[in-house]
Amino acid sequence: MSAQIIDGKALAAAVKQEAAAEVAALKAQGVAPCLAVILVGEDPASQVYVRGKINDCAECGILSRSIRLPATATQAELLAQVAALAADDTVHGILVQLPLPAQIDERAVIDAIPPQKDVDGFSPVNVGRLQAGEPCFQPCTPAGCIRMIESTGTNIAGKHAVVIGRSNIVGKPAAMLLLAQNATVTVCHSKTQNLAQLCAGADILVAAVGRAGFVTGDMVKPGAVVIDVGINRGADGKLHGDVDFAAAAQKAGWITPVPGGVGPMTRAMLMHNTVLAARRAAGL
Ligand code: NDP
After folding, report:
1. 167 is in an annotated binding site
2. 165: annotated binding-site residue?
3. CA separation (Å) from 216 to 194, 254, 267?
4. Is 256 in the pocket of ligand 1 (CB under 6 A)?
5. Closest Cα partner for 173 from 269, 256, 239?
6. Confidence at 1, pLDDT banded by 50, 70, 90
7. Is the omega angle on the peptide bond into residue 259 within 30 degrees of 0, that is, cis?
8. In the chain, which ranges are continuous DSSP H helix?
9. What confidence category does residue 173 fall into, taking pLDDT thresholds of 50, 70 and 90?
10. What span, in angstroms and rounded, lies between the C-alpha atoms of 241 and 72?
């Protein structure tokens, strides 16, 4: 293996430490950052994610509220919860854990979160501000990817970045953030022709496909920075990325592991955004 590993756990610990220091400074000024997390239903993976977020809050000194609704909750009930949190000045960030049960319109719920409390960065105002290059809450996963790339010392400006995936939560915002850093960005998706060839020309390759081992060694440019967003549970019960790690690591300059890469950074960036929301709400 020639690639250096981008250690998501270590970077995430540093981001959380920064957040904790900011929380302490805010508390000294009478502001206690608080994140509210709403979970609808009993999805086991969502329960694990929510528990993780609550633990992260505790670690950073951020107050948290965990609101549980049954899987049978109506859209009106969920919207009423969001409205109550929106009106509560002691709550700075509101996160509704996705996916939601089928009877609830996800878009309507995200739209109901006030932009200034939308720490996931999914509301239309934040999406628009990101696009326009204005101050906003950057979605946690792509924001974490950028931090990881920066941690390698790579100057993103002028580099050819290829993003595989165009979802609203990862692919598109990752492309926008890379463009904002002056990369030349190519976005690939399921209809892309010559995908392997495009990837092989990438100085920075971000894989957000949702298919284990999708990125093979021949798709990696020697020396490239490879960011593997994928989380795929294999038949072996283990988590696998979208990148064939062993093969890609022979060629890449830097690579993120799965687990221990983008996942921990995503969680840490949520803490960063919550502190930012509290600071902005206090006008500090
Ligand atoms: P989506 O399913 O929403 O998007 C997948 C994207 O990959 C789509 O744009 C799709 O193209 C594209 N794609 C699928 N198959 C192919 C193919 N054969 N060739 C080219 N492109 C293809 O997934 P998400 O963006 O939500 O997530 C992607 C992965 O990242 C998942 O494994 C998810 O679990 C993981 N994830 C990890 C997070 C973390 O914290 N580490 C956070 C969020 C997600 P098209 O648009 O044409 O359908």
Report:
1. yes
2. yes
3. 14, 15, 27
4. no
5. 269
6. low
7. yes
8. 8-28, 44-60, 75-87, 106-112, 124-132, 140-151, 171-180, 195-200, 245-251, 262-281
9. very high
10. 33
State residue 242 phi and psi, 5-degree precision.
-85, -10
Q: Ligand 1 centre from 205 Cα, in Å?
A: 14
- One-letter-per-residue 3-state SS of 100-112: CCCCCCHHHHHHH
CA–CA distance from 89 to each of 31, 34, 84 (Å)? 11, 10, 10
Query: Cα(282)–Cα(278) distance, rounded to whole angstroms?
Result: 6
With H, G, I as helix, E, B as strand and everything else as coil, classify residue 275.
helix
Residue 141 beta carbon below 6 angstroms from any ligand 1 atom: yes
Q: Do 254 and 1 contact (CB within 8 A), yes or no?
A: no
Query: For residue 249, which amino acid is it?
Result: A
Question: How far, in Å, CA of 24 to CA of 271, rounded?
Answer: 13
pLDDT the model gives residue 201: 98
94 assigned ligand-binding residue:
no
Q: Any idea which residues carry the catalytic annotation? A: 53, 97, 120
Cα 167–169–172 angle (5° rounding)?
55
Q: What are phi and psi of 278, to 5 degrees?
A: -65, -40
- C-alpha R_g of the chain: 19
Q: Report angle CA 143, 147, 150 to the nearest 5 degrees.
A: 135
In short, whether 219's Cβ falls inside 6 Å of ligand 1 is: no
Res. 229 pLDDT band, cuts 50 70 90: very high
Query: What does the pLDDT look like over 40-54, one tens digit per residue?
Result: 999 999 999 999 999
